[in-house]
Amino acid sequence: MLKKGAKMQYLSVLAGGAMGALLRYLSTQGISGLIKTPFPAGTLLVNMIGSLVIGFLFGVFETRAVPAGLRLFLITGFLGGYTTFSSYSLETVRLFLAGNISAAFINLALNNLLCLGFTFLGLGLSQKLVAHV
User: Fold this and answer.
1) Was 63 annotated as part of a binding site?
2) 76 labeled binding residue
3) Angstrom distance (rounded) from CA 35 to CA 19
4) Which of 11, 26, 83, 91 has the greatest CB tally within 10 Å of its CB?
5) How many CB atoms are located within 10 Å of the residue 53 CB?
6) Distant-in-sequence, close-in-space partners of 31: CB < 8 Å, separation ≥ 6
């Protein structure tokens, strides 16, 4: 059985995530409707906005007392649902700020190269699966 505090944490993340995911969908659709290009401009803009907001909130939360539930709702939930790129960006910035430059660059390289590679792998696996069904 979950403790009451844990239930509230889960609900904070769940509610924020749902709202962030919906806003991401609406934003990318709206931007794609305005900017006619094969380039994923909507996703890029959402990632940029999410990175800006997570950096701003991180700065505020480091200097102000903010309830843990609000942090979970906004950063883990809302921004996690809006764009996971913002989390990746914040983690990399934290490594830079901590002076762990090599880990920051390793994080950059691994996230970009491995995630792209795994996307291609997943695509290839799905194509093989579909070909056999």
Assistant:
1) no
2) no
3) 24
4) 83
5) 17
6) 41, 42, 45, 46
Please report, for the chain, the start and end positions of each structural domain, with discontinuous segments joined by +: 4-83
CA atoms within 13 A on the CB side of 94: 11
Which residue from 55, 16, 18, 25 is spatially nearest to 43, judged by alpha carbons?
A: 25
Q: How far apart are CA 112 and CA 51, in angstroms?
A: 16
CB 16 within 8 A of CB 77: yes
Q: What is the Cα–Cα distance from 9 to 32, expressed in whole angstroms? A: 34
* Cα angle, residue 75 at apex, residues 64 and 67 outer, rounded to 5°: 40
| Average pLDDT per block of 10 residues along the chain, 133 residues long | 82 96 93 84 87 89 90 94 85 93 93 87 85 77
Q: How many CA atoms lie within 13 A of 8 on its CB side?
A: 8
